[in-house]
Design goal:
Layout (H helix, E strand, L loop, with lengths): L2 H29 L1 E4 L2 E4 L4 E2 L4 E5 L10 E4 L5 E7 L4 H19 L4 E7 L4 H10 L4 H13 L1 H5 L4 H11 L4 H8 L2 H18 L3 E2 L1 E6 L2 E6 L4 H11 L6
Parallel strand pairs: 3-8, 6-7
Antiparallel strand pairs: 1-2, 4-10, 5-7, 6-9, 9-10
Amino acid sequence: MSFEKIIGRISSIAAFVVVYLLASGVYLSYKGFVMKDGRIELVKSAYAIDKDAVGKKISTDLLIPWGRSIGNDDAKVTIYEYSSFGCYHCAHFQLKTLPEIQKEFIDTGIVRLVFNDFPLDQRSMQASMLAHCFKGQKFFRVSDQLFEKQREWGLASKPEEIFKKYAYLNGLSEADYEKCIKDRETAQEIMDGRQFAISHLGISGTPSFVISSAKGREVLYGAPDYDTLAALINKYLPEDKK
């Protein structure tokens, strides 16, 4: 191969790489993120919701992406939770209200709860990435830990060191932690789910919930207390299950 052809091929490859990186940057920017030192960082923050309010109705034909879930696969009501690990009201719901809901409705097979990440800021994104290092029920145990320790990592000058400590305490090696915390596929899954909630469900803050059953769907914005959420669950249950 001539020297000119070699230079031409190298130039073509370089041009492709530049175009790819530019396209990736545009995509990430659209989703509210940027690449920095091999990590995906959130740059467009959302906000926390402090009052619960029922929002718009959602078509039952809309296929809502599934996150990590607990409960019976055949439950008559599904609750899609959109939550940020850095949101105080999300932590209150997760640690105070959800255990009551779980005892009454999830553990009894009536409700299935699907947890969907909706990071509000960069630290919340990092927390989401850490939680996704774990599978099954351990995901929820680590999630509870992140909510319980919210102030510790939320106010830390170097939250990465705190997240690394949590990873080790939950049995993750340093190599596995570094691999999963930078996993582009997981980050894109979180970004896509967040964008779907914004574009199709009208969700722009946390916590938010979609209550779904064969009877219909509607969005609940804010952290509901037990009575509010229980009433909505019963509203969407079949008559013979109430």
